[in-house]
Amino acid sequence: MATVRALACAERETFANLLESLTPEQWDAPSLCPGWTVRDVAMHTIAYLGQGRIALARNMFAARWDVGTLNANALARLGSVQPGLLAMTGRAAHLSGELAGGGVALLDRR
Asked: Which GO terms describe its molecular function (predicted)?
């Protein structure tokens, strides 16, 4: 398990470094995900870090159990976050939250 945590921390640090290296044009460029910019993908990647079971359930309820709406709501909530803050948030986030136990992006702590 310690190896998984070390990999997750290294992955998160590498991702944060990448985010910090992007130019404004790169942030606003289309990603490989249709209809999403690089900024959207970055926000989606960190939007649920540390979110507990109750918060996730509340957000899913607000989205009427539609994952697309859940993601759209998260992007709207984080839409004005500056790139440097996104990188810092991703780097500083603890390996916790409801999604951590599912092995999502090497975040499994259990």
From this structure: metal ion binding
pLDDT score for 43:
84
| Residue 48, pLDDT score | 74
- CA pair distance 108, 74, nearest whole angstrom: 22
For the chain, domain boundaries: 2-106
Q: What angle is formed at CA 43 by the lines to CA 79 and CA 23, rounded to 5 degrees? A: 85
For residue 90, count CB atoms less than 10 angstroms from its CB and return exposed for 0-12, middle for 13-18, buried for 19 or more: buried
- CA-CA distance, 108 to 102, in Å (whole number)? 6
Burial (0-12, 13-18, 19+ Cβ within 10 Å), 87: buried
Residues 8 and 105 sit within 8 Å (Cβ to Cβ): yes
